[in-house]
Amino acid sequence: MLETLYRQNIIIRRSERTAATKLQSTLTIRVRVSSLDWLLSSMSSRLGIAFCRAANFKASLHRGARVSSFPRPSSSSLSSYPTARMTTLATFRLPALANEPNQHFAKGTAERQKLQDAIDALKSKGTIDIPVVVGGKNITTNDKVPQPMPSNHGTKLATCSQATKAHVDDAINSALAAREAWSTLPFADRAAIFLKAANLIGGKYRYEMLAATMLGQGKNAWQAEIDSAAEAVDFLKFNCAYAEQLYAQQPAFNSPGVWNRVEYRPLEGFVYAITPFNFTAIAANLPCAPALLGNVVVWKPSPSAVYSNYLLYNILLEAGLPPNVIQFVPGDAEAITDTVLAHKDFTALHFTGSTAVFRSLYGKIAKGVADGTYRSYPRIVGETGGKNFHVVHGSADVKNAVIHTVRGAFEYSGQKCSATSRLYVAESIWPEFKKQLIAETEALTVGPSENFQTFVGPVIHRGSFDKLKKVIDDAKDPKSNLTLITGGKYDDSTGFFIHPTVYQTDDPTHELFNRELFGPILTTYVYPDAEFQNILKAVDTTGGGYALTGSIFAQDREVIRYAEEKLRDSAGNFYVNCKCTGAVVGQQPFGGGRASGTNDKAGSMNLLLRFVNVRSLKEEFDSTPEVTYASNAV
Hints:
This protein is α/β, with parallel strands linked by helices and 634 residues long.
């Protein structure tokens, strides 16, 4: 039996002639598209089946069938294209997957010159005005906040309009209005948008993204490359692959005459994405991962990364993202958040930032749940801070451990949530380790992030500089129980520069083993070799309650295995004979537990599961003959 499906009429005429009776019948079916859209898009989301327009499968109908043409829509909005969609005979397959290759910008190469040209071009633009973007419209306000260059804080890279409560309300309403059309768009079409965005970031806009991240967020060329180009591309591509795998996960068993299936629906409401300054790639992942799955998003970017984030947002639009799917809402964090968390359709938080802020958000959401504010229980996904460790055993390769420690502690001026800030070294190798550590650290070039020779650039802003300066000043007090090994310098005359600094203490519970600094300051404890087991207990019980990343350096396999076991809850990402930073999408899913976050593992399918609402469907093909059971018979 054919169901009548309705929104816009399509007339299909089919003539059938049987050989026996030579009778001719004409079947006219009036089909209206809205229900057809619903039915087929529902199948799409639960089965991962791609769809195409009715005109494309004309040949699959019986001879004599015809499909009336649609009037051409006058608007380019997504909802203006009510088209019938039918299944193809097979699922679409995504392009082959691989991590984005890195460029290295060696001296004399064309890639270095292209990057230099992009840096020069961005500098020549002067101060860039960044709007609030709500409902596809750019909004400029009188209230603006500058984004200074960390390497030259007297120069404003950009000024950014600040969203008002009315703008946030409009952003939420615009996102919710787009939800139905976006969520019913076939996965293949949604994926194509983000795959194209990845292609644009990795190609057409690569050097612009690098320049924006270098000048705006203080990263050197290599750190900008592995972040705003490679990792951003990887997040967009790998999320598509993980979504494809997720949709394909269906019940393995069906009773006779039964078809079971699972639909991975988007969440009911809107997602709130709060992105940090320190990774442009995270700014790509936090709003885009939920959106890929059919969710709509209100995105609040960091004021210290707003230019690169705005560039990223415009790349998404160029890739075909409908304007209302992601709303770009810079502004006062507390004011925006209070408006968002008071809305009944708030359905998920996707956050990267400080532990203190995340705990505050968690508490506000919990209160909203207790007060019955929300339609459903909001999903909370957060990655916060870390007090990350390197443990160096007496059997370690000293040179390797030193190189990885210097990189782990001082790349991007220690402003990675995974940066090494706690160091534990066996007494037997400490003299040689210390000698090499000082030599490698003092050889690092400190300077403006756009200079290719720079290894350690500035910290992000005045607040960070002042906090780190105070730590260095306080360490000069004899009561601090800290011995300066190297560094201890700072300079804010032009940019916010903190020189890489190493301290040693004889107290494994010292404050600097528990307090996250988010800067290029490393604290060291030298332990007696015979106390290795005890030092692992100290590593686990200190660290400020964080459990993000950590590393063991040893050649003795039993030692490695022992450390892996004793520190199994101390880090969400654990490394052997390499630094505790630099997780690669698709290779090391990233996230930590305890105070470090919800450990939902960015760069994995597990993260995507947090942004779908799973529905089980059961269909029986046979009729049930009676109410009573066989056991009821007397």
